[in-house]
Amino acid sequence: AEVRRELAGQKLPLILSGGAAKANGLIELVQDRLASSSLMDRVLCVQVAEEPENCVVRGAMISADIASRSS
User: Fold this and answer.
1) Cβ-based neighbour number of residue 26 at 10 Å
2) pLDDT in tens, the chain (71 residues)
3) For the chain, first and last CA: distance in Å?
4) What single DSSP character describes residue 19?
5) pTM for the whole thing?
6) Distances (CA, A) of 64 to 16, 28, 54, 67
7) At a CB cut-off of 8 Å and minimum separation 6, what does 46 contact?
């Protein structure tokens, strides 16, 4: 809830991850869909994550590490 309050009203980058994030034309497709939605005014940019095929697993490992430290 605290993070939500701090980020309220800010534009944030939309980061695409996973192997499919490297598909040709995906960024443009996402940008087109956002342009016709109410979310566009909350998105700063759309980009592919560095090492998109690994970042999902990295995020899961970080989450597991945080959870193990708090228990």
Assistant:
1) 14
2) 677 777 787 899 999 998 899 999 999 999 999 999 888 888 999 999 999 989 989 989 999 999 999 87
3) 21
4) G
5) 0.71
6) 21, 33, 16, 5
7) 13, 14, 16, 27, 30, 31, 34
Tokens at 7, concatenated: 């980020």
CA neighbours closer than 13 Å in the CB half-sphere of residue 27: 10
Q: Indicate the residue type of 43.
A: V
Q: Which residue has the tokens 């534009």?
A: 11
Q: How many CA atoms lie within 13 A of 70 on its CB side?
A: 6
pLDDT for residue 62: 93
* Residue closest to 43 by CA, chosen among 32, 34, 56: 34
Q: In the numeric block, which tokens belong to residue 6? A: 């701090």
Phi–psi pair at 40, nearest 5 degrees:
-55, -35
